[in-house]
Input
Amino acid sequence: MPLHCNKENKAGLFEVFYKTFLFLLVLSLAFLSGSQAQASTIPVGLTFATANYTQCDTLLIQIQVSTDKAFSNIVDQSNWTVCQSNTNFTYSAYLPPVQGNFYWHGRHMNRCTGEVSAWSVPFRFYLLLDPSKLVPGDVNGDGFLTPVDLIYLVQYFFAGGPQPTPPQVGDVNCDGKCTVGDLIYLINYLWKFGPPPCRPYFKPLSLQQAK
Ligand SMILES: [Ca+2]
Ligand SMILES: [Ca+2]
Output
């Protein structure tokens, strides 16, 4: 496809498209069966919404997925051109079959001028392959239940911190919702010998959202 440079619209295009990453929707997990968990990679849809723009064929989208927030261990990346306004796009990332937190971010490039935007903020999601292997109460998804999880819940409820990963794990008393009551429940367990966190229920196909 030939590239076109419309200098009158260039600045506006960059501004508009940058916003698309701030409105992303993120993440549908599509494969949870045991046989698929044995695959060398797991396809995961990363979805974002584009705003209204016009000179689409001058924009190259770059997306990276990593196991850490600093993007020091990138497990998938892609470059591609978007040619539609006001549309939800889904990029299929192929990830190693490792249950846990992943992060992705994106940026755009004007292929005519070579201008490159800054990377968007990182968006986190949880790759859920086997709910039975989740550690009850491990709300930060690092695989262990420690006082750090308590701090994580405090920040979630009172300081705008990220939600538990996956979200159902935050319901440590299994009453169907994640509330301050779960925080108290976890305090009682860690320091007052209360009952342990329960194992959350998951439907066969779960949708996890990043924050
Ligand atoms: Ca933890
Ligand atoms: Ca609860």
Q: What stands out?
A: The CA atoms of residues 150 and 184 lie 9 Å apart. The pocket of calcium ion (ligand 1) is lined by residues 138, 140, 142, 144-146, 148-149 (CB under 6 Å). The chain has two domains: 10-129, 132-192.
